[in-house]
Amino acid sequence: MTTLFFIFAAMINTDAIFSISSENEFNTLALEVFKFQFENNPVYRSFCDLLYKHPSDVKTVEEIPFLPIQFFKSHNVISSQSQIEETFSSSGTTGAITSKHYVTNVSIYEQSFRKGFQHFYGNIEDYTILALLPNYLERKGSSLIYMVDDMIKQSQQPDSGFYLNNLDTLKTKLCALASEEKKVLLIGVSFALLDLVELHQFSLNNTIVMETGGMKGRRKEMVREELHAVLKSGFGVSKIHSEYGMTELLSQAYSLGDGLFKCPNWMRILTRDPEDALTIQKINKTGGINVIDLANVNSCSFIATQDLGRVYNNGAFEIIGRFDASDIRGCNLMVM
Which residues contact 167 (CB under 8 A, 6 or more apart)? Predict the structure, then answer.
């Protein structure tokens, strides 16, 4: 490989990413990020070259090539020459090859999840954050744990913390906070939330229960409707919220209780034809989930995941399942 491979483009203004306020602004910046990553990311450049896709040929977001997510397992997907500040790794069984996301500017990740949470839920300081997840020291390398650990600190609430191995203490906290009418976010992997409601029944108010997925290897798989029905009954709440994120992304989408996820302004979901990975489908059709995450400016912002889903007219999307024979992505593996 010659040094001519790298044609360094002007740096992307990351402030512009989190200031997007219209579809036109998003599309314009997405095309700029595509050009930047084409010129600065050798892995992505090689992938685009194989498809004979050059920025001069790409005029719309739908024409941008989406890098298969498996490349995060086999290659260093980086669009920056800066020093790596954090390496986020996916959960996996012993001996399994895990994804690695090399982050050269972790402040971009912090901006993304802080601004994303504020957009959907408001000021983090209004919430006590109770996490049914391993704590930061137990699971270094998890982007989810990094995010929740920061949220706990940002909340500045004395009861905020990790409670995975302290279900009785958590039960007492939940009941006390409910009686005081404090706003609470209980966030956890699905199997741990189920463990809690099997031990204790609740009637919570002012509490958001948010599941991050994760059942494989600990319990039988449950469809979302079944899982949420059990959790709603056990916690005494009318809705179960969900978070859609992964190691390979620096942004999250949220479902506020109806199974439909919504993205922050710097993130978009498209679906690809299940039989033709290079064809982007029209809305309302089930297909492979492609993610545009402009917060991934220093890695790759255009990722073809192994999830199946559907996008609706208002930009909301739902996850229906996974492609057959694809790796199981389950946050529950973090605690095995």
Answer: 195, 196, 199, 200
Which token pair is 288?
């492979």
3-state helix, strand, coil in the chain (%, to 5): 35, 20, 45
By residue count, the chain amounts to: 336
Task: Give the angle 71-75-81 at the CA atoms, nearest 5°.
Answer: 120
pLDDT tens per residue across span 56-85: 999 999 999 999 999 999 999 999 999 999
Read off the pLDDT of residues 23-66 as tens digits, 9 standing for 90 and up. 999 999 999 999 999 999 999 999 999 999 999 999 999 999 99
Cut 0.70: pTM above it? yes
Q: Where are the beta strands (DSSP E) in 133-286?
A: 161-162, 184-188, 207-211, 241-244, 253-255, 261-262, 267-273, 276-280
183-212 CB burial, b ≥16 within 10 A, e <16: bbbbbbbbbbbbbbbeebebebeebbbbbb
Please identify which residue in the block is written with the tokens 């512009």: 16
d(CA 120, CA 252): 11
Residues in a beta bridge with 292: 268, 302
